[in-house]
Amino acid sequence: MKWHQLGDMNCPVGRSLSILGDRWTLLIIRNAFLRTHRFEDFQKQLGMTRHLLADRLNRLVEKEVLKKVLYQDGPKRYEYRLTDAGQALYPVILMLGKWGNNWLNDGADHPPLEFIHNPCGHKTDPQLRCSECGEELHARDMQPLLVEGAGQEGMLQNTGDSHHPGQQRTASRG
Question: What is the reported pLDDT for 8?
């Protein structure tokens, strides 16, 4: 499958990766959350070539993850601001940071990144929780379902045997 074909997949992860799936794009988004807004600042902080940075910023604007905001009229200069869709990526950035802390820190060379919840002032451990029962979410406890009317219906095919009590199984359609 070619990179540009991911956007046509019947999978929200694949479609998301068609926009976000390279290392530079997620670093641009991370820096936007750290209040970087100007082209020169992104370039200086990330060490990207101007051409590559312009390409990634233009794609994020085209896909409405970032928006361009004029800050100087002559010559025209723009800042890049997160849209609502861009702001919605914060949990992704937060959980990538947590994953890096847990799996890629090797002592003093890479100290962990800590997260402070400003409203209460405490350090926090980012977690994904069920919106209904409040339990922490784990892959072993989840079953993705395709929504009716979206072209295909029913459970996504599961190649492993991860049946849990109370979980309804469906036959494979493959």
Answer: 66
